[in-house]
Amino acid sequence: MQWNCYGEYNPVETSPCTTECGLCLKACPFADSGENEDTIAKRLYGAVPGIRHRSETGYYLASYVGYSERHRPTSASGGMATWLLETLLTEGVVDHVICVSPTGDPERLFSFQVFDTPEDVRTGAGSAYYPVEMSEVIRQVLEVPGRYAVTGLPCFLKAIRLAQQRNKKLRERIVVTVGLTCGQLKSRQFTEYIADLAGVRGEVAGVRYRGKSQDQPANNFYFSFTTADGKERRLFWNEGIAEAWRNRWFTPEACNYCDDVFAECADVTCMDAWLPDFSGDPGGTSLLIVRSGEMLNLIEECCAFGKISVASINISRVVRSQRSVITIKKSHLAYRLYQDELLRKVFPKKRIRSSSNLSELERWKCKTICAMQRQSREFTLKNGCYLKDGASSLKGEMYWDLMQLRLIRFLSFPFRAVRYGLELVAQTLDRR
């Protein structure tokens, strides 16, 4: 796996393929392998006693809201993913944990790594909005016996499940998967762009993507950049990061064809509690969807002994917490597929069917965001994000698209107000 010109990872042939076995495509989460998240998850969880299913979340046994007091300060939200990985090690459920952690290498700021102690696992706490790839850690799983837990985004875990079907060692050794909800990946240029926006001059040596401030709500976290000379710059979410994130700047094209929000192939899925009750808490709060009976027993036992502070939450509220991501990965995806059909483009087969059933405002919004996504990727070819004032140059190119989005937001205000009122009613009913 090597960097391409957009700051994304691509597979590169290092020697001529002699077997032509096709395993690479059969394990690729975006290739038409004949399997999707529904068929994979049904085989894994369909027979679990008490299991239920929703189209948005896939299978689920239970859903929780809460946090780990010990892990909360250094984690992106409530620290439940880090707590779970540590507990799997200390309880002897697994021998090794695979997760993303900082490298200290400016050319590759983050990577998947294998850890054997809870102390090492803590180095991977927090989010990493940076490209990573799994070839090195998968090679270690194949070469070093033991029981492994793997944490990853939906597409990574789908790839692991597909690979497990065709490799006995992966099937036997990867015994727990911990998923993270996902709306999109980002290229390495996203980090360079935000660093430039924060006023960083010079090479970025380290990044913290989800810093918390006690005087700010959980949904206004900051990015912290460290340079080689030890200087630090911070930029809060509402100071420009949100604009680049929501408008899909520096987002790989593959993300346009993902319809899995809740990591449906994972034993447990963790996410932020983006709900009015919790998003104002500076400490951060986690939501969990549990699909494995073993993981459910572990969480309930630790909750009973006071090791974590969690409570059951209605699955409808979990779905509502990720509403904007669901819109992009379901409704907007259906419209993008419809556009691809009109243009006779080749695209992977998805569970979502192509459809033009969007309002005129939503169509306009979808097209505008797609245009900005393409422009941001092409911007890296023309200018790169290492140049001084690169951030302002990109924003200048996006000016008219941003103006269109503001107009769309203004015109859609009555609809959003009605929807917000209905959501408040629904939340009240859920609590009852």
Automatic annotation (TrEMBL):
InterPro entries (alphabetical): 4Fe4S_Fe-S-bd, Co_F420_Hydgase/DH_bsu_N, FRHB/FDHB/HCAR-like, FrhB_FdhB_C
Highest taxon, organism lineage: Archaea
Transmembrane spans: none
Record GO terms (molecular function): oxidoreductase activity, acting on CH or CH2 groups, with an iron-sulfur protein as acceptor
Protein name listed in UniProt: Coenzyme F420 hydrogenase/dehydrogenase, beta subunit C-terminal domain
Domain 4Fe-4S ferredoxin-type: 7-39
